[in-house]
Amino acid sequence: MTPKPPPAPTPMFRPYADAAAVQTIGGLSLENGPDVIAVHGSLDLTRDRVGLDRARALQAAITAIVEALSGSDLPDEAAAPVEKPGTVRNPFA
Hints:
There is one protein chain. The protein is an alpha+beta fold. The protein has a domain at 22-70. The protein has one helix at 49-70, and strands at residues 22-25, 27-31, 38-42. The protein has a 3-stranded antiparallel beta sheet, with helices on one face. A hairpin with a 1-residue loop joins strand 1 (22-25) and strand 2 (27-31). The longest helix is centred in the middle third of the chain and has 22 residues, at 49-70. The termini are far apart.
């Protein structure tokens, strides 16, 4: 049996840098945004090399988020974004 190659390196997650980047670790997704990072899904950290790789990737992402927040002048609490109602084209018309 041939040994499994190591996983490809995950590109550096740059928190709050854009509104398009998503980092996926196992079944967990970190969706980047200019004002918020949304975390969705679940992550199993198994007691093996895969679990270790996932734990390190999660640690790197969380560390990057904490560093980005620590280097900013932050309000006590961000205001909730207000979405203006809009008109949606009827797909059945």
